[in-house]
Amino acid sequence: MDIDMWTMYGYPVDILGRFLVDMDMWTMYGYPVNILGRFSVDMDMWTMYGYPVDILGRFLVDMDMWTMYGYPVDILGRFLVDMDMWTMHGYLLDIHT
């Protein structure tokens, strides 16, 4: 295309052979990824198995809330009813359990 653009399998790549959407965005399996190969929704949001995850691969409801097995959890993986109440095996627990 030009001296700074190559193609691989018909897709544009950079000098290191990474698939390009633009200089800061690549694709893997047809999905956008960042420079580290993590799936991107945007630069601060990735997806895993079609669900949004944070930079550490934890499933997100929002930046302060994750889900595990479809239930909301806090940053430590404890099941939440609200910020001060968790459940385990369907039973309510307090913050100290």
Describe the structure.
The chain is mostly beta strands and 97 residues long. It is built from no helices and 13 strands.
Task: Describe, in short, the structure shown.
This protein has 97 residues and is an all-beta fold. The N and C termini lie far apart (61 Å).
Described by strand count, sense and barrel closure, the largest sheet is:
3 strands, antiparallel
What is the H/E string? EEEEEEEEEEEEE
- Per DSSP, the total helix count is 0
Instruction: Please state roughly what percent of the residues sit in beta strands, choosing from under 5%, 5-15%, 15-25%, 25-35%, 35-45% or over 45%.
Output: 35-45%
Low-pLDDT stretches are 21-25, 41-45
N- to C-terminal separation? 61 Å
Strand order of the largest sheet: 5-6-7
The rough form would be described as rod-shaped
Q: Which structural class do you get from the secondary structure elements?
A: mainly beta
What portion of residues is helical?
A: under 10%
Q: Topology, pairings included?
A:
Blueprint: E1 6-8, E2 11-13, E3 26-28, E4 31-33, E5 40-42, E6 45-48, E7 51-53, E8 60-62, E9 65-68, E10 71-73, E11 79-82, E12 85-88, E13 91-93
Antiparallel strand pairs: 1-2, 3-4, 5-6, 6-7, 8-9, 9-10, 11-12, 12-13
Which terms summarize this structure?
mainly beta; 13 strands; 3-stranded antiparallel beta sheet; 97 residues
